[in-house]
Structure formats: structure tokens, C-alpha cells
Amino acid sequence: MSAACIGCFDGVHLGHQKIIQTTVQIAKEQEIAGKALSILHPWASFFPNFPGLIYPITKRFELIRLLGIDLIEELDLSCIKDMSPERFVRSIVDSGVKVVVVGHDFTFGSGASGNVSTLTELSPKLGYDFIVVPEVVRNSRKVSSSWIRELLAQGSVEKASSLLGRPYSVSGTVYRDKHLGTKLGFPTANIATQEESLACVRPGVYVVSSVIAGDRHFGVLNAGFRPTVNPSKQLKYEAHFFGFSDDLYHRSLEIEFLHFLRPELKFDSVSELVRRVSEDMKSAKAWIKKSSPCSKTLP
């Protein structure tokens, strides 16, 4: 038997955390397993203008488990979107779910015709209990994955992080590129992110941090298309860590976005680019010293 929360949970933001934590608490009280039924991709992903997931699905599951969930079951929207609401709920109850936990605006079944009222109607017939978790509101607006995607596209990473309950981050493996940063005087770690379609931040320069070999390092990162030198058609992540000179090639890094410094710019010359990057590093260090308790470790 289990208590199960149902949703996409992309980003595992503050609203999702409340639903998941409620599920964990109920499971403990009733001495049953706590399960998360995660819809892999939201309904919006079926449309061409969808900006992408906030995190890769593997990262989503990692965050869900950290909240105390015992089991995670994947739900493929393409397989369940045409089910009648009753058939969908029955399939969940038949798998041993005793308590269903959802957000107040949860919809399901063919044409999203099922909602909280449907759960109320089906509860005595199918023999389950259910809990509806109220929305989490910030600045008079419901915390949602779509809002966070909007903020990322605007470069508002601090606000996005406040809704996520943790710094927004990207993860990937450092790969060898053309060593352009090294030649210009600021070696960079070029990050190859996972191939999943992920939401992108606004192209620009950010203050970032990453834990490398157990120590936290701060730096600047350019997320963009490198319009001045060696332009790219795909968004690239290139990070320079202050006072760090070890070899990072083939290492996996999680880079946290702390603050937006400026949009990506095209410069008339390489020397102008180098001058501006130097200014960016000074601005980043000033922000870190002002905002981070770890600033004393800066070079």
C-alpha cells in the first residue's frame, strides 16, 4: 500500500515540495510507502513553442528522492492522455495506492476533463482517500514551472532560484574546445549539458559557483552564442573559475547561477572583448564579496 502524489514536478519547486512533503508525512503516519507518480513531460511540451524542461528528468528524480519519497513511477503523458478520468484513477488505485495527493489545479484524463471534483466523486466508488494541497503563492502569483521558465528566459535567476528553493543550476561534462579562453587570458570550462530539451537562460554573463573536488569555487559564466569569436548556432556554457587552474576535462560539474551581470554582446574587436571580460570579473567578485559568506576564499 502507498500514498502517492501525482504531477509532472518539473523543477521540484516550492509548490511541488509542499505536495511531496505532504505525501511523505501521510505515508509515515499510516506506515505505508510514499510514492511519486511523475508525468515525464507536461502537456505544454506537445506544442512547438514549449521552452523546455527546467531540469533533466534524472535531476528531477534526484530532488524528489531527497524529500523522502520511497518510490518514483514514471507516467508517459502520451500513454495516459486519452484515458477516461475514471480509468486513470482506477489504474492508480489498482497498483496499491491508498491515498492520492495532488495540487488544487490538478487535471487528468482525456481532454484534461478530470479534476479535484472528479477525485471527490470517484473516492467512495474506488475506495481511496485523497488530499488536495493548496497552492504556494509568491508576490500574489502561484509558484509554477511556467513562471520559472519565464524568469530564466529573462535572466532573472535569483527570482527563479527563490521559487525553486535552491539555486538554479545546469549540469554537464567539461569538454575540450579551441582553448580560446586560455589564449585570451581567462581559461574556461566548456560544459556539454544533457541532450534533453531544456529551458535556456537569457544569453549573457552570470556570476556562478560550483563544488569541485569538495570545495566551492566562484566564477563567471557566459551562456550564449559567442558572437564575437567562433560563433555558435547552439547555446554554449563557458565558465571561468577564479583562482582555479586544475584540469577539468571530462569532469562532471553542476554549475549554480547566482546573479545576472549583463546580456551577451558582440564586440568590434578581441581586445574590446578581453577588456569587457575583465570588467565582468571585477563586477562578479564585488557581487560575491557582498552577497556570499564564502567570499573570503576569493583570490
Give a description of the structure.
- The protein is an alpha/beta fold and 299 residues long.
- It has 2 domains: 2-142, 3-Layer(aba) Sandwich (Rossmann fold); 167-297, Elongation Factor Tu (Ef-tu), domain 3, CATH 2.40.30.30.
- Helices cover 32% and strands 28% of the residues.
- The protein contains 9 helices and 13 strands.
- It has a 6-stranded antiparallel beta barrel.
- Helix 5 links the parallel strand 4 and strand 5.
- Helix 4 crosses helix 5 (116-126) and helix 6 runs antiparallel to helix 7 (157-164).
- The protein starts with a strand and ends in an 8-residue tail after the last helix.
CATH architecture of the largest domain: 3-Layer(aba) Sandwich
**If you consult CATH, what is the topology of the largest domain?**
Rossmann fold
Spatial order of strands in the largest sheet: 8-9-12-11-10-13
- The general outline is elongated
Q: Tell me about the largest β-sheet.
A: 6 strands, antiparallel, barrel
Helix content: 25-40%
Order of helices and strands: EHEHEHHEHEEEHHEHEEEEEH
Q: Tell me, what is the CATH class of the largest domain?
A: Alpha Beta
Provide the residue-averaged pLDDT.
93
